[in-house]
Write a structure and sequence with these properties.
2 helices; two-stranded antiparallel sheet; Alpha-Beta Plaits; 111 residues; 4-stranded antiparallel beta sheet; 33% strand
Length: 111
C-alpha cells in the first residue's frame, strides 16, 4: 500500500506584495487549482529599496503555495501571472517546483 499519492504534482510558489494573495488564489482556482496556502513574508529584492526619512522600509509580502496536478500547471501559472501582472517590475514572482511525493490529498484519486 502506498503512503503517498501516486499522481504527479508541481508546487507553484507565487510571491506578491501584501494584499494581492487572494487575487492569486482566485485566479488559480478559476484555472483548475483546488486552493492555496498563504504565508506572510518580507521582501529584500531589487525593487524593495524604498526609504522613509532615511530608514529602509522592508515591504510586506505574501507567498502563495499552490499544489497542482502537473497537467494543470501551465494553465494555472498563466492565470496567476495575468491576475497580478507578474510580468511588470515590482509586481512579484512565480516559479514552479516539481514535487517528488505528496500525501494528504488522496481525495484526488476518486476523480
Amino acid at each position: 500500500m502506498l503512503d503517498y499519492c501516486p499522481l504527479d504534482f508541481d508546487l507553484i510558489v507565487t510571491i506578491v506584495n501584501r494584499g494581492f494573495a487572494e487575487e492569486v488564489v482566485t485566479a488559480a482556482k478559476e484555472a483548475g487549482a483546488e486552493g492555496g496556502t498563504i504565508i506572510k513574508g518580507r521582501g529584500t529584492g531589487v525593487h524593495e529599496n524604498a526609504k522613509l526619512f532615511g530608514v529602509c522600509i522592508e515591504p510586506e509580502k505574501e507567498v502563495v503555495l499552490t499544489l497542482i496536478d502537473r497537467n494543470k500547471t501551465g494553465n494555472v501559472l498563466a492565470a496567476v501571472t495575468r491576475s497580478v501582472d507578474l510580468n511588470q517590475p515590482g509586481k512579484g514572482v512565480a516559479f514552479v517546483l516539481e514535487v517528488e511525493k505528496a500525501t494528504g490529498i488522496c481525495h484526488l484519486l476518486k476523480d
